[in-house]
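Long-time lurker. I teach an intro course on protein structure, and each term I like to show students one example going from raw sequence to a predicted 3D structure in token notation. This year I'd like something fresh instead of my usual example. Would anyone be willing to generate the tokens for the chain below so I can use it in lecture? Attribution to the forum is fine with me.
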Amino acid sequence: MIKRKTPSWLRGVNTIWEGSYFLGTKPKLDKDDLIRTARKRTGLCDLGSDFNDEPLERLLWSINEEARLNPLGCFITRERFIGLVCVRLRAENFFKRYPAILEQELYPSWIIIGLQRTGTTKLQRLLAADPDHRVIPSWEVINPIPLDPEYFEKHPPVNRKNSSSLHTRPGGAGTASVAFRTPDPARLKLANTAVNALRYLSPGFFAIHPIDALQPEEDILMLDVSFLSTTPEAMMHVPSYASWLEKTDQSEAYAYGAKLLRLLQWVHPGQRWILKTPHHLEFPDLIVKFYGNAHFLWPHRRIYESVPSYLNMVTHNRMIFSSHVSEKQVAEHWVRKTGYMLDKALKYRNIGNNDRLFTDIRYQDLVADSVGQLEKIYQSDGGLTPELVTAFRKHEAENPRHKHGTHHYSLDDFGLTEADIDRYTLNYQHFISEKLTLTAEP
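-- Reply from a regular --
Happy to contribute to a lecture. Here you go:
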């Protein structure tokens, strides 16, 4: 088994802080208190008629009873949840003031749904180099709604009547979504603070998953606003919540996620959404129902390599929040969960003509010849232009593999064998073997 350690200064802070709990310093994780605090911070009260507080209540119970958070983890969780409630309050304020936001149709989307650690981030960031594409950079996904209630009076949205004329394919890349690359300074500052904090809290994390405030991130945070997502179980031990979540209809989360996407595209238009999160493997039906015209990009990697890589990432995540992280516990939860997610996606894909909605990509091909894989993706969109190829190659040159260090992992690190992985993923392995040949990595 591998040994991971949190920084000594972090252990010291948690020890001292926990020792002062008798003075009333323990951060409070209570639903009513979180909502009350968010309303006070924003000066807003309306969470919307579609707000359901049951998911938040169940999540908080699971955290308080099962997660064994350390003081800093408890503090971060409290601030994050207050922030999510604030996002909802600010969103409802803008929806009421600008009803045209919700009258829009969502752009068509390419949804990257591969398992964690299969090249999904690389693919997403490559596609973000196409200026016709609308992505959600970290600074925006953390705070998708402007902090200033008068933001749109000071920064009027792009003239939407003219936005369609910006699309120039197949002759060359357009400029429809360049505007999002000019960040809101207030939200960029908060995002940079979060990125820098992560560097100190988990020094090895960036070798696993590099985070940049200006680069796109997972849109699962759009679902977090409804407190219905797998984010919590990737960050902490919340088995009761995770079990309840699998049995619960996620429609309200995707419906509200679509509302937030409408606001984002209203602020800065584009031609196509590029979205990415493994969470969507469970819910391609809801993507199609609420997001409309979607095509799924599914990267594939040998399951014996992607799973331990992700388990290592989850372990690093959880060690920020708890001083009682069990690698065995992480493995038991996420190996089964991985199979569950894959089976849900395959079940949808095997219905009727749904297979036509998917494009498969080999991880090894994406790493070895990304432009070749992008050409396959763009076949339905007029093919790649010389300008796009230049943009993609420039991104690759500026972001080489292992830029932030090398990530080491193995099944042995978690006491697992290939048979343990096979127990939950044979359906997926059989399915994908008929389409692609996935070979062992050197």
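Some talking points for your students: The CA atoms of residues 68 and 324 lie 7 Å apart. The longest strand covers residues 294-300.
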